[in-house]
Amino acid sequence: MSSNKPNPLAAQPGTKGIDPRGPRFGATITLITLTVELIFLLSNPEALSSSNTLAQNFATPAGILLTYITVIFAIGAFAGIGKHPYGAIFKALVRPRLSAPTELEDPKPPTFAQLIGFIITLAGLVFAVLGITAGAIIAVAFAFVAAFLNSVFGYCLGCQIYVLLVRAGIVGRGSASA
Prior knowledge:
Blueprint: H1 21-43, H2 54-58, H3 61-79, H4 85-94, H5 108-129, H6 133-153, H7 157-167
Helix pairs in contact: 1-3, 1-4, 1-6, 3-5, 5-6, 5-7
């Protein structure tokens, strides 16, 4: 087995790539917000209740923060990773202080990862609003694990799922594969 295998996440020739440190920076901010969300959910599980109205559950600190996290994932998933708010912070404040990246990353896998994050946190938000605290905790915990892996180890779980789906022929690389 060759150790010089091409990186499946690397930007394809002729496509615009992204600095791979940007999504990792965003994952760190996401990890922090998900940690706070888990603290909200675990420290006061009675705050969300099926006997509350949807608006009451939505207006809790857990509901408000989870809405924010879900919207951030939605921006990354539907507007693209290049429009992600945490990416803008990275480009403005962090990137100028770093050396140039040694390799650029294809933006499609991190954008797909944002879609997975959106779906998981949206499920958590639905559980939270319905007062199903355990469901909200489980969904947020899944997102937390993925953000932790990316932030601490640079392992993007959603990106790896994208690569597996491309290899299986379920999703394509669009013009990058042409």
